[in-house]
Q: What sequence folds into this?
């Protein structure tokens, strides 16, 4: 048995986080898995968070983990499918403007410039919310 009851340790490094999976044994002989997340911050002491899962609860823990991973995979596939369908719909909408020769036809807005209205509001093409105070005469 190693220091502080450690039986086995492995590490995973991801970007600014480190994960430690420690199999430990306590004073009464119970074996448990300790998962520690260590997150480094800009030159400051790292944040550490840990959970412990005892051996008798490990199967339930892993079942929960498997269900979560299955959901994540289904959700990822559904999002990819939705994005692909959205792209296809967008491509179909823009391909309506093609001529018989396969070249794109670009439509030009009317040649006549829009009338300018001088109401004291600066229009830049962006959306502006203007509130006017209603006064009673």
A:
């Amino acid at each position: 048995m190693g220091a502080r009851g450690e039986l086995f340790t492995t590490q995973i490094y991801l970007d600014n986080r480190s994960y430690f999976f420690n199999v430990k044994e306590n004073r009464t002989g119970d074996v448990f898995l300790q998962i520690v997340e260590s997150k480094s911050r800009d030159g400051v002491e790292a944040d550490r968070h840990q959970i412990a899962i005892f051996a008798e609860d490990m199967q339930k823990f892993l079942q929960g983990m498997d269900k979560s991973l299955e959901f994540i995979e289904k959700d990822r596939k559904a999002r990819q499918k939705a994005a692909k369908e959205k792209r296809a719909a967008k491509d179909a909408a823009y391909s309506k403007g093609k001529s018989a020769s396969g070249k794109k036809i670009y439509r030009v807005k009317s040649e006549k410039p829009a009338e300018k209205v001088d109401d004291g509001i600066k229009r830049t093409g962006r959306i502006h919310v203007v509130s006017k105070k209603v006064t009673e005469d």
Notes: The CA atoms of residues 53 and 61 lie 8 Å apart.
